[in-house]
UniProtKB/TrEMBL annotation:
Signal peptide: none
Residue ranges annotated for the Tc1-like transposase DDE domain, each copy included: 149-300
GO molecular-function terms, A-Z: DNA binding
Listed Pfam families: DDE_3, HTH_SB, HTH_Tnp_Tc3_2
GO biological process terms held by the UniProt record: DNA integration; DNA transposition
InterPro entries per record: Homeodomain-like_sf, HTH_SB, RNaseH_sf, Tc1-like_DDE_dom, Transpos_IS630-like, Transposase_5, Transposase_Tc1-like, WH-like_DNA-bd_sf
Domain of life: Eukaryota
Lineage: Eukaryota, Metazoa, Chordata, Craniata, Vertebrata
Sleeping Beauty transposase HTH domain sequence ranges: 1-52
Source organism of this protein record: Astyanax mexicanus (Blind cave fish)
Domain named Transposase Tc1-like: residues: 70-140
Name of the featured protein: Paired domain-containing protein
Coiled-coil regions, chain positions: none
Length: 340
Protein backbone atom coordinates (compact mmCIF):
# COMPACT_ATOMS: atom_id res chain seq x y z
CA UNK A 1 0.00 0.00 0.00
CA UNK A 2 1.37 3.38 -1.03
CA UNK A 3 1.91 6.25 1.35
CA UNK A 4 -1.16 8.50 1.70
CA UNK A 5 -0.86 12.12 0.63
CA UNK A 6 -0.64 14.66 3.44
CA UNK A 7 -3.52 17.11 3.73
CA UNK A 8 -2.87 20.71 2.75
CA UNK A 9 -2.56 23.40 5.42
CA UNK A 10 -5.72 25.12 4.09
CA UNK A 11 -7.77 21.93 4.48
CA UNK A 12 -6.47 21.44 8.00
CA UNK A 13 -7.46 25.01 8.86
CA UNK A 14 -11.01 24.35 7.55
CA UNK A 15 -11.23 21.30 9.81
CA UNK A 16 -10.24 23.42 12.83
CA UNK A 17 -12.71 26.18 11.87
CA UNK A 18 -15.58 23.69 11.52
CA UNK A 19 -14.64 22.14 14.86
CA UNK A 20 -14.66 25.55 16.53
CA UNK A 21 -18.10 26.24 15.03
CA UNK A 22 -19.44 23.23 16.94
CA UNK A 23 -19.63 20.59 14.23
CA UNK A 24 -19.00 16.97 15.19
CA UNK A 25 -16.15 14.87 13.91
CA UNK A 26 -18.50 12.81 11.75
CA UNK A 27 -20.06 15.90 10.16
CA UNK A 28 -16.67 17.40 9.37
CA UNK A 29 -15.51 14.08 7.90
CA UNK A 30 -18.58 13.81 5.70
CA UNK A 31 -18.50 17.43 4.54
CA UNK A 32 -14.76 17.50 3.65
CA UNK A 33 -14.45 13.87 2.52
CA UNK A 34 -11.70 13.23 5.06
CA UNK A 35 -11.51 10.07 7.23
CA UNK A 36 -12.92 10.59 10.74
CA UNK A 37 -9.69 9.35 12.33
CA UNK A 38 -7.69 11.94 10.38
CA UNK A 39 -10.02 14.74 11.48
CA UNK A 40 -9.67 13.62 15.08
CA UNK A 41 -5.84 13.52 14.83
CA UNK A 42 -5.62 17.02 13.32
CA UNK A 43 -7.85 18.50 16.02
CA UNK A 44 -5.92 16.76 18.79
CA UNK A 45 -2.55 18.03 17.45
CA UNK A 46 -3.94 21.55 17.15
CA UNK A 47 -5.04 21.55 20.79
CA UNK A 48 -1.55 20.42 21.88
CA UNK A 49 0.69 22.52 19.59
CA UNK A 50 -1.61 25.39 18.55
CA UNK A 51 -0.82 24.98 14.83
CA UNK A 52 -1.79 22.81 11.88
CA UNK A 53 1.62 23.07 10.23
CA UNK A 54 3.52 19.76 10.19
CA UNK A 55 6.18 19.76 12.89
CA UNK A 56 9.73 18.46 12.31
CA UNK A 57 9.90 14.72 12.65
CA UNK A 58 12.62 12.92 14.55
CA UNK A 59 13.40 10.59 11.64
CA UNK A 60 15.12 7.28 11.89
CA UNK A 61 17.20 6.67 14.99
CA UNK A 62 20.86 7.47 14.39
CA UNK A 63 23.16 4.52 13.88
CA UNK A 64 25.86 6.02 16.09
CA UNK A 65 25.33 7.36 19.59
CA UNK A 66 26.75 10.75 20.57
CA UNK A 67 29.60 8.99 22.38
CA UNK A 68 30.35 6.87 19.30
CA UNK A 69 30.36 9.98 17.11
CA UNK A 70 32.83 11.70 19.42
CA UNK A 71 35.05 8.62 19.31
CA UNK A 72 34.86 8.61 15.50
CA UNK A 73 35.86 12.27 15.31
CA UNK A 74 38.77 11.71 17.71
CA UNK A 75 39.93 8.77 15.60
CA UNK A 76 40.00 10.85 12.40
CA UNK A 77 41.65 13.85 14.06
CA UNK A 78 44.42 11.66 15.45
CA UNK A 79 44.83 9.83 12.11
CA UNK A 80 43.97 12.36 9.37
CA UNK A 81 45.17 9.98 6.62
CA UNK A 82 42.80 7.17 7.61
CA UNK A 83 40.25 6.21 4.93
CA UNK A 84 36.49 5.96 5.43
CA UNK A 85 36.62 2.22 4.74
CA UNK A 86 39.26 1.75 7.41
CA UNK A 87 37.10 3.71 9.86
CA UNK A 88 34.19 1.37 9.10
CA UNK A 89 36.40 -1.66 9.74
CA UNK A 90 37.65 -0.25 13.05
CA UNK A 91 34.09 0.46 14.20
CA UNK A 92 32.93 -2.98 13.08
CA UNK A 93 35.73 -4.56 15.14
CA UNK A 94 34.22 -2.81 18.17
CA UNK A 95 30.74 -4.13 17.38
CA UNK A 96 29.32 -1.13 15.47
CA UNK A 97 28.47 -1.71 11.82
CA UNK A 98 27.98 1.44 9.72
CA UNK A 99 28.26 2.33 6.05
CA UNK A 100 30.83 4.61 4.41
CA UNK A 101 28.03 7.14 3.78
CA UNK A 102 27.20 7.25 7.49
CA UNK A 103 30.85 7.88 8.37
CA UNK A 104 31.02 10.69 5.79
CA UNK A 105 27.82 12.35 7.08
CA UNK A 106 29.01 12.25 10.69
CA UNK A 107 32.37 13.78 9.77
CA UNK A 108 30.68 16.48 7.69
CA UNK A 109 28.45 17.40 10.63
CA UNK A 110 31.60 17.98 12.67
CA UNK A 111 33.22 20.12 9.97
CA UNK A 112 35.65 17.46 8.73
CA UNK A 113 35.91 16.96 4.97
CA UNK A 114 38.25 14.95 2.81
CA UNK A 115 40.83 17.19 1.13
CA UNK A 116 44.04 16.69 -0.78
CA UNK A 117 47.09 16.78 1.47
CA UNK A 118 49.20 19.84 0.68
CA UNK A 119 52.74 19.05 -0.45
CA UNK A 120 55.21 20.77 1.87
CA UNK A 121 58.93 20.31 2.61
CA UNK A 122 59.85 17.65 5.15
CA UNK A 123 60.84 19.40 8.37
CA UNK A 124 63.13 17.74 10.89
CA UNK A 125 63.79 18.94 14.43
CA UNK A 126 66.80 20.99 13.34
CA UNK A 127 64.66 22.72 10.72
CA UNK A 128 61.97 23.56 13.27
CA UNK A 129 64.62 24.99 15.57
CA UNK A 130 66.19 27.23 12.92
CA UNK A 131 62.77 28.41 11.71
CA UNK A 132 61.77 29.39 15.23
CA UNK A 133 65.10 31.16 15.74
CA UNK A 134 64.67 33.09 12.47
CA UNK A 135 61.16 34.16 13.54
CA UNK A 136 62.36 35.24 17.00
CA UNK A 137 65.39 37.14 15.64
CA UNK A 138 63.31 39.10 13.11
CA UNK A 139 60.01 39.53 14.94
CA UNK A 140 60.90 43.10 15.96
CA UNK A 141 61.82 44.19 12.43
CA UNK A 142 59.38 46.74 11.04
CA UNK A 143 58.20 47.30 7.46
CA UNK A 144 61.19 49.55 6.74
CA UNK A 145 63.58 46.61 7.12
CA UNK A 146 61.59 44.20 4.92
CA UNK A 147 61.19 46.85 2.22
CA UNK A 148 64.99 46.85 1.88
CA UNK A 149 65.16 43.10 1.21
CA UNK A 150 65.73 41.84 -2.33
CA UNK A 151 64.01 38.45 -2.49
CA UNK A 152 65.16 35.81 -4.98
CA UNK A 153 64.57 32.23 -6.07
CA UNK A 154 64.32 29.90 -9.07
CA UNK A 155 61.22 28.26 -10.49
CA UNK A 156 60.27 25.93 -13.33
CA UNK A 157 57.38 26.82 -15.64
CA UNK A 158 55.96 24.14 -17.93
CA UNK A 159 54.59 24.96 -21.36
CA UNK A 160 51.21 23.29 -20.90
CA UNK A 161 50.95 23.50 -17.14
CA UNK A 162 51.49 19.82 -16.32
CA UNK A 163 50.28 20.33 -12.73
CA UNK A 164 47.36 22.60 -13.57
CA UNK A 165 43.83 21.50 -12.63
CA UNK A 166 40.74 22.44 -14.61
CA UNK A 167 37.12 21.98 -13.51
CA UNK A 168 34.29 21.57 -16.02
CA UNK A 169 30.50 21.34 -15.84
CA UNK A 170 29.34 18.06 -17.35
CA UNK A 171 26.74 15.32 -17.06
CA UNK A 172 27.40 11.76 -16.00
CA UNK A 173 28.99 9.78 -18.84
CA UNK A 174 30.46 12.87 -20.52
CA UNK A 175 33.88 12.74 -18.82
CA UNK A 176 35.74 11.87 -22.03
CA UNK A 177 33.94 14.28 -24.34
CA UNK A 178 36.76 16.35 -25.94
CA UNK A 179 35.15 19.52 -24.59
CA UNK A 180 35.48 18.14 -21.06
CA UNK A 181 39.09 16.94 -21.19
CA UNK A 182 42.37 18.80 -20.81
CA UNK A 183 44.97 17.77 -23.41
CA UNK A 184 48.36 16.81 -21.99
CA UNK A 185 51.72 15.86 -23.44
CA UNK A 186 54.62 14.04 -21.85
CA UNK A 187 56.73 16.12 -19.47
CA UNK A 188 54.37 19.09 -19.82
CA UNK A 189 55.54 19.76 -23.39
CA UNK A 190 58.83 21.14 -22.15
CA UNK A 191 59.65 23.79 -19.57
CA UNK A 192 61.98 26.65 -18.77
CA UNK A 193 63.84 27.44 -15.57
CA UNK A 194 63.82 31.03 -14.36
CA UNK A 195 65.72 33.00 -11.74
CA UNK A 196 64.03 36.13 -10.50
CA UNK A 197 64.09 38.73 -7.78
CA UNK A 198 61.75 41.37 -6.42
CA UNK A 199 61.38 43.86 -3.60
CA UNK A 200 58.58 45.85 -2.05
CA UNK A 201 59.05 48.51 -4.74
CA UNK A 202 58.47 46.12 -7.66
CA UNK A 203 59.87 43.25 -9.70
CA UNK A 204 63.56 42.99 -10.55
CA UNK A 205 65.31 40.93 -13.20
CA UNK A 206 63.88 37.68 -14.54
CA UNK A 207 66.63 35.54 -16.03
CA UNK A 208 66.22 32.33 -18.02
CA UNK A 209 68.51 29.49 -16.95
CA UNK A 210 69.95 27.43 -19.80
CA UNK A 211 70.28 23.74 -18.99
CA UNK A 212 71.12 22.57 -15.48
CA UNK A 213 72.24 25.45 -13.30
CA UNK A 214 75.72 25.11 -11.80
CA UNK A 215 77.37 27.35 -9.25
CA UNK A 216 79.22 29.16 -12.04
CA UNK A 217 75.92 29.85 -13.83
CA UNK A 218 74.38 31.14 -10.61
CA UNK A 219 77.36 33.39 -9.96
CA UNK A 220 77.06 34.88 -13.45
CA UNK A 221 73.35 35.57 -12.91
CA UNK A 222 74.11 37.40 -9.67
CA UNK A 223 76.94 39.41 -11.24
CA UNK A 224 74.75 40.52 -14.13
CA UNK A 225 71.43 41.08 -12.35
CA UNK A 226 71.75 41.63 -8.61
CA UNK A 227 73.08 45.17 -8.28
CA UNK A 228 71.25 46.48 -11.39
CA UNK A 229 67.96 45.22 -9.94
CA UNK A 230 68.69 46.83 -6.56
CA UNK A 231 69.47 50.18 -8.24
CA UNK A 232 66.41 50.03 -10.46
CA UNK A 233 64.18 49.29 -7.47
CA UNK A 234 65.65 52.17 -5.47
CA UNK A 235 66.86 50.06 -2.52
CA UNK A 236 69.71 52.44 -1.70
CA UNK A 237 72.91 51.22 -0.05
CA UNK A 238 71.70 49.32 3.01
CA UNK A 239 69.69 46.65 1.21
CA UNK A 240 69.78 42.94 2.08
CA UNK A 241 69.89 40.00 -0.33
CA UNK A 242 67.77 36.92 0.34
CA UNK A 243 68.47 33.48 -1.09
CA UNK A 244 67.74 29.96 0.14
CA UNK A 245 70.36 27.40 1.17
CA UNK A 246 70.68 25.55 -2.12
CA UNK A 247 74.27 24.21 -2.44
CA UNK A 248 74.84 26.46 -5.49
CA UNK A 249 73.83 29.49 -3.47
CA UNK A 250 76.09 28.68 -0.54
CA UNK A 251 79.09 27.57 -2.58
CA UNK A 252 82.48 29.06 -1.78
CA UNK A 253 82.77 30.96 -5.07
CA UNK A 254 79.37 32.63 -4.58
CA UNK A 255 80.11 33.51 -0.95
CA UNK A 256 83.44 35.09 -1.92
CA UNK A 257 81.84 37.23 -4.60
CA UNK A 258 79.06 38.41 -2.27
CA UNK A 259 81.67 39.38 0.32
CA UNK A 260 83.83 41.20 -2.24
CA UNK A 261 80.75 43.03 -3.58
CA UNK A 262 79.85 43.97 0.00
CA UNK A 263 76.35 42.55 -0.34
CA UNK A 264 74.70 41.66 2.97
CA UNK A 265 72.94 38.28 2.85
CA UNK A 266 69.93 37.46 5.01
CA UNK A 267 70.60 34.38 7.14
CA UNK A 268 68.00 31.90 5.95
CA UNK A 269 66.43 28.80 7.59
CA UNK A 270 66.50 25.67 5.41
CA UNK A 271 63.32 24.11 4.05
CA UNK A 272 61.38 27.38 4.35
CA UNK A 273 59.78 28.35 1.03
CA UNK A 274 56.72 29.53 2.99
CA UNK A 275 58.87 32.33 4.41
CA UNK A 276 59.88 33.59 0.97
CA UNK A 277 57.18 35.85 -0.54
CA UNK A 278 58.58 35.31 -4.04
CA UNK A 279 56.80 31.93 -3.97
CA UNK A 280 53.53 33.88 -4.05
CA UNK A 281 54.89 35.90 -6.95
CA UNK A 282 55.65 32.71 -8.88
CA UNK A 283 52.05 31.58 -8.40
CA UNK A 284 50.75 34.86 -9.80
CA UNK A 285 53.17 34.69 -12.73
CA UNK A 286 52.27 31.11 -13.67
CA UNK A 287 48.53 31.80 -13.57
CA UNK A 288 48.90 34.82 -15.83
CA UNK A 289 51.22 33.08 -18.30
CA UNK A 290 49.11 29.92 -18.60
CA UNK A 291 45.98 32.04 -19.08
CA UNK A 292 47.60 33.32 -22.30
CA UNK A 293 48.14 29.72 -23.52
CA UNK A 294 51.68 29.89 -24.97
CA UNK A 295 52.20 27.47 -27.88
CA UNK A 296 55.99 26.99 -27.75
CA UNK A 297 58.88 27.56 -25.36
CA UNK A 298 60.02 30.82 -26.93
CA UNK A 299 56.53 32.23 -26.49
CA UNK A 300 56.43 30.88 -22.93
CA UNK A 301 59.61 32.80 -22.11
CA UNK A 302 58.27 35.95 -23.78
CA UNK A 303 55.00 35.80 -21.83
CA UNK A 304 56.91 35.25 -18.58
CA UNK A 305 58.98 38.38 -19.16
CA UNK A 306 55.92 40.45 -20.06
CA UNK A 307 53.77 39.27 -17.16
CA UNK A 308 56.63 39.66 -14.66
CA UNK A 309 56.99 43.28 -15.73
CA UNK A 310 53.22 43.79 -15.50
CA UNK A 311 52.99 42.88 -11.80
CA UNK A 312 52.11 46.13 -10.04
CA UNK A 313 54.53 47.55 -7.44
CA UNK A 314 51.53 47.98 -5.11
CA UNK A 315 51.02 44.22 -5.12
CA UNK A 316 54.68 43.67 -4.26
CA UNK A 317 54.56 46.14 -1.39
CA UNK A 318 51.38 44.64 0.03
CA UNK A 319 53.00 41.20 -0.01
CA UNK A 320 56.16 42.40 1.75
CA UNK A 321 54.38 44.64 4.27
CA UNK A 322 52.50 41.62 5.61
CA UNK A 323 55.70 39.67 6.23
CA UNK A 324 55.48 39.78 10.00
CA UNK A 325 52.34 37.63 9.80
CA UNK A 326 54.50 34.81 8.45
CA UNK A 327 56.82 35.04 11.44
CA UNK A 328 53.87 35.01 13.82
CA UNK A 329 52.48 31.94 12.04
CA UNK A 330 55.82 30.11 12.40
CA UNK A 331 55.86 30.87 16.11
CA UNK A 332 52.22 29.84 16.59
CA UNK A 333 52.78 26.57 14.66
CA UNK A 334 55.95 25.83 16.65
CA UNK A 335 58.17 25.95 13.60
CA UNK A 336 56.00 23.76 11.37
CA UNK A 337 54.85 24.73 7.86
CA UNK A 338 52.39 27.59 7.60
CA UNK A 339 49.58 28.44 5.18
CA UNK A 340 51.91 30.75 3.28
Amino acid sequence: MGKSKELSVDLKKRIIDLNKSGKSLGAISKQLQVPRATVQTIIRKYKVHGTVVSLPRSGRKRKLSHAAERRLVRMVKSQPRITKKQVCKDLEADGTQVSVSTVKRVLHRHGLRGCRARKKPLLQKRHLKTRLKFAADHMDKDKTFWRKVLWSDETKIELFGHNTQQYVWRRKGEAFNPRNTMPTVKHGGGSIMLWGCFAASGTGSLQKVNGIMKKEDYLQILQENLKPSARRLGLGRSWVFQQDNDPKHTSKVVKEWLNQARIKVLEWPSQSPDLNPIENMWTVLKKRVHARKPSHLAELHQFCQEEWSNIRPEACQELVDGYQKRLVAVKMDKGHVTKY
